Structures are given as structure tokens and as C-alpha cells.
Amino acid sequence: MVITSDNTTDSITLGGTANADFAALGVNTTAVGPTNASVAALTDTLSIAVGSGTAQTIDLSTIDTKADLDTALAGITNVSAAVTGGNLVLTASSADDSITIAGGDGVGIANGTTDAPRNADRNTLRTEFNNLRTQINQLITDTSYNGNNLLNGDSLSVIFNEDGSSKLDITGVTFTATGLGISEAATDAFQTNASIDTVLTELSSAISTLRSQGGTFGSNLSIVEVRQEFSKNLINTLETGAAKLTLADSNEEAANLLALQTRQQLSSQALSLASRADQQVLSLLR
Is the dihedral of CA 135, 136, 142, 147 positive or negative? Predict the structure, then answer.
């Protein structure tokens, strides 16, 4: 005879004057506690260690109730257990402790699985990292000048002469966080050293890309600056020549004019004296 409670959390106790009759039927009149089907379905041997504590082996095949599981886990400090939907959930009392499970292949747990705790400080750093990543995108957007943004995919042609035959083509880049290969940090991205190493690798690669492109932009800038200096010197030379052709110093020109007038007067007087001398010689010959 099997008596089953509708509620698996309730126990059933058999007793009274009919105990002998029950015994004759082979029915145990001892109170029978509820059996959690999810717990009873677990059949494996687990080795569980919390933090740096000593590992304890638990034979799940001998566990039928949550109370049995709590008893089995009693030797493990700083841990609590729950069975939800057939899943064994272990929770460390301290957020800084990890739970390491071995021998759990039969219940879908990889051997040597370690559930590291979520470190609050690392989670804060993850949030700050994502905020900085957002700032990178906003900074790149704000680097536009005259509708041209070399850091967000635009290109630029610098023309050096009037017919455009001499020019420098500058190819732009996309240096948003995604363009630099910096991925957004997921919820648990900073909870393990391995995931942090992955982020550091992305940052190192992004820095190398920035340095390389910085050298390219620097070379382009040097060319533009040299041509700009040449153009300035050429403009100054042309302006000086034009000024000499169109502009005159009135004082200097007046002095030159006076000198010319004086020379003309002296020449006239010299010719007059020469003419008189000739006439005097002729008069003597007469």
C-alpha cells in the first residue's frame, strides 16, 4: 500500500490501534518525511570546497530530501544549498569565496568547475571601463572639423596649387571603441583574471593601432607644415616684389629729382661757357 501526499513538502504519519494490522501488512507506521523528487533525482558523488577550505565528498545517491542535503553539507562551512528545477544551487556565505566542485559529471557539472564570487570592486571597475568606452565614442564624434572627421571614417585631400595637380590625400580611420577592437565588458567580464587578461590584450592592441596611425598622421602633418611654410615664404617674396614695383619713397624720389635738376643746370652752364669761349677765340682771330 502506497500513500502519497498531494504536497511534497508534507509528511505522513501512520499510528493508532491498528498498528498491528498495519505491521501485518508490512506497513511502517513511522512518520515518513516528504521526498523532493528533484533532490532524489541527483545521483553522483561530489567533492565540494568553499574558498581555501577542505573539500568534502557528498554521495547524492543517499540524499532524498532537502534536509538530507543540508546535513551532508553541514561539514562545509560558509555554504548553503537549494534545489530548483532539478538544479543543485550552492551559495557561498561570503561574496569573496569561490566554490569548487569536482566529480559532478553525472549531474551536468564539468569536473573541476569553479564558481568564482562576484567581486564588488571588480564589478565597479567593469562599470567604469564601459563608461570610459562610451567616452571614447563621444570623443571621436566630437573631433569633426568643417564637416570632416578623420577619426570617424572621413578622408581629406590637401591641395597645394591652383590647378590641384599637387595635393596630399589623407585616408581617415574609424577609431571608435568598436573600431579599435575594444569590446563592451559583459556582466562578469572582470570577475576572473582570464577575462581581465582578454580585455588587456584588446587594450594593448588598440594602443598599438593608435601609435601606428599616429605616426602616419604625424608624417602627413609634417608634409602639410613644410608646404605651408613654403607657401608663406613665396607669398612674402611676391608681395615684396609687387611693393617695389608699385610703391615709391617720396623723399628718396624727390632727392633723386633734385640731383637730376642740378646736373641739368650744370650741364647748361658748361655748354654756355664753352660757347662763349669759342666766340672769344673767333674775335681774337678777326
Answer: negative
DSSP assignment string, 181-240: T-PPP-TTTTSSHHHHHHHHHHHHHHHHHHHHHHHHHHHHHHHHHHHHHHHHHHHHHHHH
In this structure, are residues 199 and 129 in contact, taking their beta carbons and an 8 Å threshold? yes
Asked if the 121-240 domain carries CATH number 1.20.1330, the reply is yes
What is d(CA 46, CA 225) in angstroms, rounded to the nearest whole number? Answer: 71
Q: What does the pLDDT look like over 155-190, one tens digit per residue?
A: 999 888 888 888 899 999 999 999 999 999 987 788
Q: What is the average pLDDT across 63-69?
A: 71
Between CA 50 and CA 114 the distance in angstroms is 10
3-state secondary structure of 82: strand
Confirm if 78 and 84 have CB atoms less than 8 A apart. no
Identify whether the C-beta of residue 57 lies closer than 8 Å to the C-beta of residue 104.
no
For 98-155, how does the pLDDT look when each residue is reduced to its tens digit (9 = 90+)?
Answer: 677 766 554 555 444 555 556 788 889 999 999 999 999 999 999 888 888 999 989 9
Write out the three cell numbers for 157: 585631400
Cβ atoms of residues 63 and 36 within 8 Å: no
Residue ranges of the domains in the chain?
1-34, 37-117, 121-240, 253-286
* Contact predicate 99/114, CB 8 Å: yes
Q: How many residues does the chain have?
A: 286
